[in-house]
Amino acid sequence: MYIVSRMLKPVPQQELQQVEQEQSARLPSAYQRWLQQYGEGTYSGWMNIQRPDPEVLKPFADYDLWEHSEETVISQDQLQECISIGSSVDGDFLALHADVEGLIWLPRHDEQITVWPSNDRSFADTLDRIYCGYYRRDMPFRPAYFEPWNEERRPVFYNFSGKENGISMKELADLCQSRYSWDLVIEDEYMCRLFRTAVGGYVRFNYAYEREIVLFYENERMRDGQEVQMQVQEIQQFLEAHYCTLHE
Predict the structure, then answer these.
(1) What backbone phi and psi angles, to 5 degrees, belong to 153?
(2) H helices of 88-206, where?
(3) pLDDT band at 225 (very low <50, low <70, confident <90, very high)
(4) What is the number of domains present in the chain?
(5) Domain end call among 123, 145, 167
(6) Are 36 and 10 in contact (CB under 8 A)?
(7) Nearest Cα to Cα of residue 192 among 221, 167, 212, 162
(8) In angstroms, rounded to a whole number, what is the distance separating the alpha carbons of residues 205 and 208?
(9) Are residues 93 and 6 located together in one domain of the fold?
(10) Residues 242 and 182 placed together within one structural domain of the fold
């Protein structure tokens, strides 16, 4: 698994133990190891792995968002007792309940609540199985990567006008990819992301709209040395020289 940034913010074991004691629930061991090693962040661009939070789902007990019957794993009232441990970028929730074996999936665009077995050896494997099962994919997202959350991440937004000047965003992404050295390249019909660990970020080309390009980097890296500053500035100069203007 590729780690986008070396600036990790691990969650202390004592904090997780305190949640278990206060909520009388057991947090999956693989999930705990993940937080203690990597901290919070986004896995493979689709799943936000978060600290355990017993407050997130309490308000949802007042709304009929999901179907509840005798066969449903939890009642509507039991939503108040669930501990949220993550959410997808689409707004789905991943949670646990003291009386339920496995992880509870609360989808945003579906009324059916499902439960997924927790793999105590690998939390990433559990997420991969949810991704394949719920989104009906044959294979999990590959290459797998993790984007840790920290306060140093800075986005720089650009408006792209190359299409009017005879160059598509895909052509610009290909040029950028060949011009510089990247640690990881992830591309599909909707988006291209070029990762570089040295700057703690990546360049994201939004093919779907053909207008937006974003450079993500970590401000702390800029203070670490001139070489990192030069790398960020070099990427910025490249973009600005190819029909990219800063979005105010």
Answers:
(1) -70, 130
(2) 123-135, 169-179
(3) low
(4) 2
(5) 145
(6) yes
(7) 212
(8) 9
(9) yes
(10) yes
Q: Residues near 72 by Cβ (< 8 Å), separated by ≥ 6? A: 66, 113
Say if residue 92 is in the same domain as residue 211.
Answer: no
Summarised one tens digit per residue, pLDDT across range 54-68 is 999 999 888 888 988
Residue 17 and residue 99 in one domain: yes
Q: Give the pLDDT of residue 223.
A: 57
- Report the pLDDT value the prediction gives residue 163, as an integer from 0 to 100: 83
- Do strands 212-218 and 103-106 pair parallel, antiparallel, or not at all (unpaired)? unpaired
CA torsion, points 45, 48, 49, 53, in degrees to nearest 10? 180
Domain boundary (126, 145, 164) is at 145
**d(Cα 2, Cα 148) in Å, to the nearest integer?**
11
% of the chain exceeding 70 in pLDDT: 97
Dihedral over alpha carbons 150, 20, 128, 218 (to 10 degrees): 0
Q: Print the domain residue range for 38.
A: 2-145
Kindly report the CATH number assigned to the domain that includes residue 31.
3.40.1580.10
The answer to whether residues 158 and 237 belong to one domain is yes
Entry field: residues in the chain: 248
Residues 174 and 192 in one domain: yes
What are the tens digits of pLDDT across the range 80-105? 999 999 999 999 999 999 999 999 99
Whole-number pLDDT of residue 114: 93
DSSP structural state of residue 12: P
| Cα–Cα dist 157/139, whole Å | 32
Average pLDDT, rounded, for the chain: 92
Tell me: do 168 and 106 sit in the same domain: no
| CA gap 14, 8 in Å, rounded | 18
- Do 101 and 129 reside in the same domain of the chain? yes
162: which DSSP letter? Answer: G
Average pLDDT for 215-224: 74
